[in-house]
Design brief:
Elements: H1 2-10, E1 30-34, H2 42-51, E2 55-57, E3 66-69, H3 75-83, E4 86-88, H4 90-98
Amino acid sequence: ARLFAGKLRAAGFNFRYQIKPRGAKWKGLTFVLTGTLPSLSRDEAKVKIEALGGKVSGSVSKKTSFVLAGEDAGTKLEKARQWGVKVIDEAQFLAMMDEAPSSHGAG
């Protein structure tokens, strides 16, 4: 597979969203994305979450671990506050990626 990927790169293919799996440190965590993030697209954030074992959901519930909110966040942000779900911004999200796995838990 590596040889094939190397040939594709040599031919000019760009693996834009390639992220090396770093384990399952976010296993059991569910994220909801809302609003416009400063530097990441929602697809990029989703890839990062899934690479760390987390899930991305389209709606907020009591089982949601974090709502990643950007500018112009709407009803998902309001619902997160109603349910008491932790709301984070992009900077907090990126910092969490570098934290030790035991520094936060599900729920």
